[in-house]
Amino acid sequence: MPRKRHTAEQIIGLLRQAEVELAQGRTAGEIGRGLEVPKATFYSWRCEYGGLTEDQARRLKDLERENARLKRAVAEMTLDKQIVSALADRPPATKAVLPWSSGPAYAALRQGQTTRPDHRPSLS
């Protein structure tokens, strides 16, 4: 038998019906069989949705979805922070030496002067 997924509104309606039947003297097992749910499910629904209106249940589900979204965002940010921290703790990589960066035309740039050389040295 396939598993049914009940909405919060359906669960609240079933719980209201069950409360009426409980007041009439039926047992939780009989009510569960009438609703086609196990007794444990009936009790867990009662624990989660007991006393809620449909609007409150809808709001509860919206807040649960928002909470899950925020938890995912925090997890991603924490992971990003750990990656950045791990990269910051590593020793710096050595600079790549370019063939034209050691010529006399670039000596002035290495010494902090801001003038640009007139030409770029050839790579050959």
Radius of gyration, Cα only, in angstroms? 34 Å
Span from first to last CA? 78 Å
The residue ranges in which pLDDT falls below 50 over 5 or more consecutive positions are: none
| Fraction of helical residues | 55-70%
Structural features:
5 helices; mainly alpha; 124 residues
List strands and helices in order, with pairings.
Layout: H1 8-23, H2 28-35, H3 39-49, H4 54-89, H5 107-110
Helix pairs in contact: 1-2, 1-3, 2-3
Task: Give a structural overview.
- The protein has helices at about 10-25, 30-35, 40-50, 55-90, 105-110.
- The protein has about 120 residues and is mainly α.
- It has a domain at about 10-65.
- The mean pLDDT is about 80.
- It is built from 5 helices and no strands.
- The termini are far apart.
- Helix 2 crosses helix 3 (about 40-50).
Brief characterization of the structure:
With 124 residues, the chain is mostly helical. The protein has helices at residues 8-23, 28-35, 39-49, 54-89, 107-110. Helix 1 (8-23) packs across helix 3.
